[in-house]
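thought: user wants a sequence for this fold. calling inverse folding tool.
action: design(structure=
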């Protein structure tokens, strides 16, 4: 019988992370300060430890994974690769569909891959506290777990709409010893400014980032930790794609297309970047980032310099953006509600080396339900965006008769998202097509320096 589940031994956990910068045709765009001049690595030292700053600016292809981090990875890595045979049969498609399942981690998502690494490097630098933001709660719970494993205290600013929608992710954070606050709060200057302008603000990742960065910059014992966007975060996530390449080889197959949800970019970069190395070497493989139509950063944003947060506390990054004061609708894929995206992902998209598509909320949940009823796993709403795009491609293969091989990152389970599934079943979910005039209004406030 052909294998459905392709497994690797613990000894196959990658010994190095892959740095996509080494294979990019052009150097990454510089990170700028408010004055328009490049930010020096030393300037980042106020909120990041030296080792992570080195990784952020590295051009080396391979970065060694410290053995203590690999030892913690052993609790859930290597994660399994599945052939989605029941989904293929339900779609009557000639396509081969595979998914890498990151929901086997203790936090139920891919986020611990970088949370553990960041916590370890911070502890080694003498830091005792971390502040961070979280959208849907996957990142906040992962960092709380990492802090518990490595003896660091963690405070999480959770986007208010998700704080209210996803109470059990709040409970996870607290169970692992973290503190979680609904953002915007009255504890930071940036939070108070937002509340003064809009006391009922639903919050956004940009606002929560401002609060977390402000706190980290004001305390010597505290550093800031980010769950996506930055180069070192995507670097740590490449264990996903590195394992997937080995597993696809064991299956005797290779993807024609690789899909992943894309909010900040760690999910997409984690599985797609190792395959970009093959693409750079001449292999024909398409890499597709999937985002919601309500937060269409890559598909409708402007490629320029913008702040990574709402208050303008972060450096300016060259990326596709909807404007740093963009406040997205309260869709149930909280991890994809970000105004920008990873500068590395954005540059590769801008240069035509990766693709991006946007899918609506209702069709995304429809895909998630079909996946659950065929494969058995209830996917997080974020992961269901990739499922939607893969199903659409598999149906195109059905029409054309082309037997493509499709791989996607099933980045987490949806066990704490069942209220969203209930709303889908009750017909209470809506599709949000973010208005063009709202995008133009947000883009009108872009910083005046560092135009791309």
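)
observation: tool returned 452 residues.
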């Amino acid at each position: 019988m052909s294998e459905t589940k392709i497994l690797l031994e613990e000894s196959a956990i990658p010994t190095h992370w892959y740095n996509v910068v080494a294979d990019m045709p052009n150097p990454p765009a510089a990170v700028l300060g408010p004055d328009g001049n490049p930010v020096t690595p030393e300037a980042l030292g106020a909120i990041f430890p030296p080792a992570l700053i080195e990784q952020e600016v590295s051009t080396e292809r391979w970065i060694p994974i410290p053995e203590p981090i690999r030892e913690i990875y052993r609790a859930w890595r290597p994660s399994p690769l599945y052939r989605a045979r029941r989904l293929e049969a339900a779609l009557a498609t000639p396509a081969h569909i595979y998914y890498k399942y990151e929901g086997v981690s203790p936090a139920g998502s891919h986020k611990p891959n970088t949370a553990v690494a960041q916590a370890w490097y911070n502890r080694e630098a003498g830091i005792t506290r971390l502040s961070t933001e979280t959208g849907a709660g996957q990142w906040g719970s992962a960092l709380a777990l990492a802090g518990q494993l490595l003896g660091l205290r963690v405070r999480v600013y959770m986007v208010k709409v998700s704080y209210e929608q996803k109470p059990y992710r709040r409970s996870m954070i607290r169970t692992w010893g973290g503190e979680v606050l609904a953002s915007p709060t009255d504890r930071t200057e940036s939070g108070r400014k937002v509340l003064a302008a809009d006391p009922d603000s639903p919050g956004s990742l940009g606002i929560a980032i401002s609060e977390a960065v402000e706190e980290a910059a004001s305390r010597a014992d505290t550093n800031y930790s980010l769950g996506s966007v930055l180069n070192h975060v995507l670097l740590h996530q490449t264990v996903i794609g590195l394992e997937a390449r080995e597993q696809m080889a064991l299956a005797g197959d290779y993807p024609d297309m690789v899909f992943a949800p894309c909010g900040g970019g760690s999910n997409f970069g984690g599985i797609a970047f190792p395959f970009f190395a093959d693409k750079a070497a001449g292999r024909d493989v398409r890499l597709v980032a999937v985002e919601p139509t309500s937060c269409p950063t890559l598909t409708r944003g402007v490629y320029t310099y913008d702040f990574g947060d709402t208050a303008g506390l972060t450096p300016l990054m060259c990326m596709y953006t909807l404007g740093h004061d963009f406040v997205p609708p309260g869709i149930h894929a909280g991890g994809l509600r970000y105004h920008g995206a990873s500068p590395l992902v954005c540059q590769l998209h801008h240069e035509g080396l990766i693709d991006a598509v946007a899918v609506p909320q209702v069709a995304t949940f429809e895909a998630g339900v079909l996946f659950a009823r065929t494969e058995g796993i209830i996917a997080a709403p974020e992961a269901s965006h990739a499922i939607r795009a893969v199903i659409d491609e598999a149906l195109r293969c059905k029409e054309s008769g082309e037997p493509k091989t499709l791989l996607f990152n099933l980045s987490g389970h949806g066990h704490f998202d069942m209220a969203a599934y209930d709303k889908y079943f009750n017909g209470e979910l809506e599709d949000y097509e973010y208005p063009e005039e709202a995008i133009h209004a947000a883009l009108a406030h872009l910083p005046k320096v560092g135009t791309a």
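thought: summarizing for user.
answer: Here is the designed sequence. The first helix runs from residue 50 to 57.
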